């Protein structure tokens, strides 16, 4: 797509409510999928607790899931040096299934 074509496309205005802007903390993520959609559950597990609560559920089409994966990979590559300096003993697979 040329620069001119990009400039002619309408701009998307994204609104962010105050409550959503606060975000939620999650220390566990589960991913489920079928042929038509991916479901991402973001969960908070209390320390030494036996109960967990889903804080947010996001449902994506496969194409959007692929875009999210690419965006995460790019951002992790940029933050790679920072992540190496602050490594913890928890393996990545412990929280993302």
How is this structure best described in words?
This is DUF3467 domain-containing protein. InterPro entries: DUF3467. Pfam families: DUF3467. The protein has helices at residues 3-8, 18-21, 62-78, 80-85; strands at residues 28-33, 38-45, 52-60. The longest helix has 17 residues, at 62-78. It has 97 residues and is of the alpha+beta class.
Explain the layout of strands and helices.
Layout: H1 3-8, H2 18-21, E1 28-33, E2 38-45, E3 52-60, H3 62-78, H4 80-85
Antiparallel strand pairs: 1-2, 2-3
What is the CA–CA distance across the termini?
36 Å
Number of helices: 4
Written as H for each helix and E for each strand, in order along the chain, the element string is HHEEEHH
Strand content: 15-25%
Q: What's the total count of β strands?
A: 3
Strand order of the largest sheet: 1-2-3
Instruction: Give Rg in angstroms.
Output: 17 Å
The helix fraction, in percent, is 25-40%
Largest sheet: 3 strands, antiparallel
Kindly name the structural category: alpha+beta
What gross morphology would you assign? elongated
- pLDDT averaged over residues: 85
Low-confidence stretches: none
């Amino acid at each position: 797509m040329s620069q001119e074509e990009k400039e002619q496309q309408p701009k998307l205005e994204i609104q962010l409510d105050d409550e959503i802007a606060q975000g939620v903390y999650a220390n566990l993520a589960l991913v489920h999928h079928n042929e038509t959609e991916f479901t991402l559950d973001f969960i908070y597990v209390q320390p030494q607790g036996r109960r967990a609560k889903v804080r947010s559920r996001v449902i994506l089409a496969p194409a959007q899931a692929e875009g999210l994966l690419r965006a995460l990979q790019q951002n992790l590559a940029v933050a790679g040096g920072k992540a190496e300096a602050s490594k913890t003993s928890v393996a990545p697979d412990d929280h993302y299934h």
